[in-house]
Amino acid sequence: MVPVHARSNPIRVTIACLLGLAVVLGPASVAAASKAKSRASDCQKLRKRSKDVAPSRSLVTVVRGNDETGRISACVLPRGKVRTLTSWDDGLLRDWASVVDTAGTWVLVDDGHGDQYGGVSRSLTRIDVRRGKRLRLSGYGCQLVPGQPGCPDGTNYGDVGIAPSGAGAYELTDFVSGVTTLQAFNAAGTFTKLADGAVDALRVTSMQIRWTQAGIGHTAALP
Q1: 1 has pLDDT over 70
Q2: N or C: which end of the chain has fewer CB within 10 A?
């Protein structure tokens, strides 16, 4: 006969086993969660694998490809969506694009195209990388004909600058009127004319727009 004090208690054995299992699985679960949390995002991988042309710590902007085919991509660290800002694919080297400026989580992109039939186009676009919203700042497109110096309508840009807030300023020429002005824009996409005529120099800071015309300096608050 087995002594009473030596008998096993099923309930106690079950509890002991469960506690032991929890102790064993606890650190493993924590390690797995930590590993999942530390796994690099697509945005972090983009920055690691490609040359980042944006000076901002939070914005990643890369240009990949060559003269024939490529794309400009951007994202906001640490885990923002990787967005294709523009792309080109033309073996005849007629399409092109470039990053004009970056600030905060905003990118200014210049796109251009030309073809063997006289077609030509160019546009300047401000892109909010965090939200994917676009604001066209200037653009033209037409079919050139013999004796025609340029497109009969549309707009083109000169000096341009942007602040981390998304506001900025740029020199804009209207082909119809032939008039050049200095325009400011805010984060919401509202435009304000600052001055008539071309500028000699333009600089946009986090607080101000500074420009020079005919040797005279001017300043205006960012809109």
Answers
A1: no
A2: N
- At 106 the pLDDT is 98
Please tell me the distance from the alpha carbon of residue 217 to that of residue 223, in angstroms, as a whole number. Answer: 19
Q: Check: CB of residue 155 under 8 Å from CB of residue 138.
A: yes
Residue 29: enclosing H or E segment and its boundaries? Answer: helix 10-38
Phi-psi region for residue 197, left (φ > 0), alpha (ψ -120 to 50) or beta?
left
Torsion, Cα of 86, 92, 94, 96 (10° steps): 30
Q: Is 17 domain-assigned?
A: yes
Closest alpha carbon to 197 in 173, 168, 219: 173
For residue 191 the two structure tokens come to: 């435009």
Q: Is residue 29 part of a domain?
A: yes
Could you tell me if residue 167 is inside a domain? no
Q: Give pTM, 2 decimals.
A: 0.81
pLDDT at 67: 84
* Tokens of residue 220, six digits: 């205006």
Q: Is 24 inside any structural domain?
A: yes
The mean pLDDT of 193-213, rounded to a whole number, is 97
Domain containing 18 equals 8-38
